[in-house]
Each structure stands twice: as structure tokens, then as C-alpha cells.
Amino acid sequence: MGKAFSKPVSLSDTMTHYCPGCTHGIVHRLVAEAIDDLGIQGKTVGIAPVGCAVLAYNYFNCDFQEAAHGRAPAMATGIKRVRPDLIVFTYQGDGDLASIGMGEIIHAANRGEKFTTIFINNAIYGMTGGQMAPTTMPGQRATTAPTGRDTELTGMPIRMANLLKELVTPGYVTRQAVLNPKQINRTKKAIKKAFEYQVEGKCFSFVEVISTCPTNWGLTPLDALTWAQDTLLPYYELGDYKIPE
Amino acid sequence: MAKVLMKGNEAIGEAAIRAGCKNYFAYPITPQSEVAEYLAKRLPEVGGVFLQGESEVAVGYMIFGAAGAGERVMTTSSSPGISLMSEAISYIAGAQVPAVFVNIMRGGPGLGGILPSQGDYFQATKGGGHGDYHLLVLAPDGVQEAVEMTMNAFTLAEKYRGPVMIMGDGLIGQMMEPVEFPDTLKTEPSNKDDWATSGMDHRKSDKRNLVKSLFLDPTELNNNNLALKAKYDQMKREEVLYEGYNTDTDYTVLIVSYGTMSRVCKTAIDMMKEQGIEVGLLRPKTLFPFPEKPVFDAATKESCKHVISIEMSMGQMVEDVERSVKGRREVDFYGECGGDIPTPEKIIQVIKALL
């Protein structure tokens, strides 16, 4: 009998630094599986963000560049424009993409840059230690919102997929989650589709993934999954927001 | 090749193409937008990439990405725009990838003005962005030299795998002068397979490349900074460029001046010569590495009693001049930086006041 399950070739054999229960590992694997499935490992360049996934370049087995906070879409633009034959993806969290990098992601999407963005939304800053993100839920506690996010002072959480959908430029925009096996399978399909659009040279593709951060939410891994399901998903509705013609 | 009459900004754009640079990202800002306008038309003709970014911040990272992928790339901007790009420049230096930046300086601080200035000397030579790094900084005094330095900048950026800056000013960008373009550069960036994220298939390798400036291990970070320092030390040994003017005379005053300002000083020196006053000029063509020993030697010539740094700033390069002269002569300074370039008559008045 052959091997039924193995590590994707595009993932390196390295112990990650992620906390127990963190869903980064799942999404890393899904990205690596998509790269393997499409046979594009040898021409893929990833862009690591600033935040928990800054060390993503240690976990993927392909060329990688590391960006400054929020600038990954600009770097991806630079690479993809001068080497359209490469497959380029950015892997960014919500502090990186939706706060400091808002300008770069909007304009890259609006130019229809032919790269893929994987956007991890766990409603908090992870690496810097649980500060409020633009995606933090109303009333959700964070180290910089100790009594919970006050929307009178900080506005409502930003829904990136909804925002990017409004751009007139064609693109693939979807929001998925990795809170249970069914969602993980759907996310896998979405990530693969996002890379396929790039391989076809079709459009910018954006996969938002609702994720967990048990450490900074102060929850056990299982409670974190439940909290995300009950609190995040009603506000961050899953599904395809935009599909290219 | 015959000389052609070209505006400085356009000549810089053409020089980049002739240096084999087919990739240009920029954001408009006066007084250098003509580079972008010229290349928006010209690059498609040669199968190149032109992209107007959404901000200088983003452009800095488009440059970083493209350079990291191993392709020749350039951007141009002016002072406030260079401030915004300085974040990326620090990352580019830390990650050790070659890229060319052109600063057609305008007055500051803040929004300042749009007229010529040399107010970004500190920013270019002492940092700009964070951390221990230097740019190799070339300072042309006119359109011809801007062309030659732009072409050389790519070779230097690749030799040192780091950022190189051309420091012009609004006058050099805007004025027209006859220029002759040197032969097209034939060189390809060497050994880029060792570091560029060009794709494993592309370089037929199963070893992936990483472009990064993060080194969490203190020893690794220290080693990266030591590698950078070794480059800067090599630049100091191998890349110093300067010009002496009227320095074969028994001058009593030595002017140190660069770029546009040095040309006014040359006119003043010629006029003073007719009046029997000998003044020498030492013109740094590289601002980093600074021509420390040539300045020291010129300043300590027996006939030389006074040294003066003349700049379109409130006194920036003068600190490097003082450092180079090592207290052997008193170093004076004269500068204006509102946008009016000091006239030869004004320079003569300043020099005569020293005597």
C-alpha cells in the first residue's frame, strides 16, 4: 500500500514557532498543497509579512522575500511586473494588511496585479502581543483596548473582502475559515483556485481566512474555535465575494 | 556618438535604459517628474516595465521586490519623496540587493519648495532610514555627468549588492545641456543566482533563495552588519571620486563644493584669477564615500590658509570637510538654501571677506 498522507513538498521540514491551537499551520499547509498540486514550486516566490507569519519563509520550500509591515503587495507588484512568469503570493495578517498596509493592498488589487494574497484574519495583532487590530470585534478585549473595543472611538471592524469586492477591476475575492474540517476543505479549494487564476494570468486573487489566536484571545484552542464561529463568522460572512468573468 | 541636447531629467531616464535597466517604478514629484514622463513613453518601446505607484512608500517596495528578484531597477524622486522611500532603502540595504535611486533635490524641510537645493546631504550620506547602513552617493555637476553616473550606478549597485543614489538637484534635472551617451552597458549582474528570488526552475537549482533583513539571532545580525561594514570600507578604498580645479596653483583659499554649487564656484574662481586671487576647488563626486584624504591634502597645502565649504544648504557637508581637515585649518561655511543659487559675485564677496 502506498503512502496515504505526507507532508507537501513545498513545506519545509521545520518546527514552527506558532502557538498551540494557532491556525497558521493549517493555512501554510493548504498553500503548500496548492503549490504542489499545480506543480509551481520552482517558480513560486512568497512574500512574508511582519507579524506572526514573518518567519513563514522558514516553513515554505520556495523562494521568499520578507517585506516591511504592510508592504508585501508592493513587493509582490515589483516582482510580478518584472518577472510575470513567476508565481507570486503574499501571506499577510490583519494588522499588516488591513492597518499599516491598507494603501498597498487596495492599489495592488485595483491595478489587478496578477498575484495572490492570503489574508489571515484573526481579529488581533499576534506577534506584538494582542493589540487591537482594525478587524477586532466591538467589545473584544485587546491589550490596547483593555475594556474592549469602543467603536465610538475606533469605528467598526474593517471587512476586507467586502471592501475589495467594490473595486471595479476584475478579481477573485473570497472569505473562508479554518475552524472545522468542512471549512478547511473549502479554504483549500479557494486557495487553489486563487493560484489557478494567477497561473492563467487572469486576475488579482484574495483569500481571506478567518483564523484563531488562542494565546492573545486568552482562550483554549477549542474555545477559540467556538468563539470564532459564534462571534466572528456572523460579522465576517463566508463565501465568494467576487469571481472574474 | 554625436551629442544631443537633453533636459537632465530625460537624460537620466535614457541613461538608465542604456545601462540595461528596463524596470522603472515611480511616483510624480516636482522637480523630477519628467523622468517618469520620459520613461512612460520610452520603456514600452524597448519592452521594459513602467509603473506609476500609488505612493513613494509603495514604490520603494516595488523597487525592493524587483531588485530582490534579480532584475535591474531604478526609481527617481525628489526630497520629500526620498523621505518616504527611506524605509525601503533601509530594508534594501539590510537585505543586500542592488537598486538605483535618484534624488533631484528640492528645498526643505517639510514641503519646503520646488527650487534646487542640497539640503538632503545628511539624509543621503548619514542614513535617512533606520539602522547601520550607507548608500553609495554620486553627485553629478551637470547633465553629462548625471548620464555617466546613472549608467555607472547600476554597475556599482551590483558590485556592492546595495542601494546607490544619484544626488542631483532641481537645476540639473530641469536644465538642458548637450550630452553624449557612453556605449551601452553589456554587463549582466553577476552571481545573482546565489541570492535572487528568480525562481528555482529559472536558475535550475533545488536550493531556494531568501531575500530578508530580519536576523533575530544577535550573532547573525551582527554578522550581517559586519558584512555591510566591509562593503562600506571597500567603497572607501575603491570608489572615492573627486575633481580638483585650479588646485595646481598656490591658492590661499580652498573651496569644497559639489554639484550645481561647484559650477558657480568655478566661475567665481576664474573671475578671481583675473583679479590675481588664486582659489582652489575640491569637488567631491562621491559624497559617500567622502574624499577625506584628497580634502585633507588640498586643505593642508602650504599656501592654503582658509578652507570653506559652500553649499545650497545651511551647512551639512561642512561637517565632513571639518572631519577630513582634522583641525589643521579652520573650516568656514557659506550656504543659501531657499532656492536661489548663490551668484559668482556673492561667492567672490564671501571669499574676499576671508582674506
Task: List the defining traits of the structure above.
heterodimer; A: 245 residues; alpha/beta; Rossmann fold; seven-stranded mixed beta sheet; 9 helices; 7 strands; 37% helix; globular; B: 355 residues; 2 domains; five-stranded mixed beta sheet
Description:
The complex is a heterodimer of chains A (245) and B (355). Chain A is α/β, with parallel strands linked by helices. Chain A has one domain (24-242): 3-Layer(aba) Sandwich (Rossmann fold), CATH 3.40.50.970. Chain A contains nine helices and seven strands, in the order H-E-E-H-E-H-H-E-H-H-E-H-E-H-H-E. Chain A starts with 23 loop residues before the first helix and ends with a strand. Chain B has helices at 8-18, 33-45, 56-68, 79-95, 121-126, 143-160, 170-174, 218-238, 259-274, 292-299, 317-325, 344-354; strands spanning 4-7, 23-26, 49-52, 74-77, 99-105, 136-138, 163-169, 176-179, 210-211, 242-245, 253-256, 279-284, 286-288, 306-311, 331-335. Chain B has a five-stranded mixed sheet, with helices on both faces. In chain B, strands 10-12-11-14-15 form a five-stranded mixed sheet, sandwiched between helices. In chain B, strands 1-8 form a two-stranded antiparallel sheet. In chain B, helix 1 packs parallel to helix 6 and helix 10 (292-299) packs across helix 11 (317-325). Chain B is globular. The chains are: A alpha/beta (245), B alpha/beta (355). The interface between A and B is large, with 33 and 40 residues.
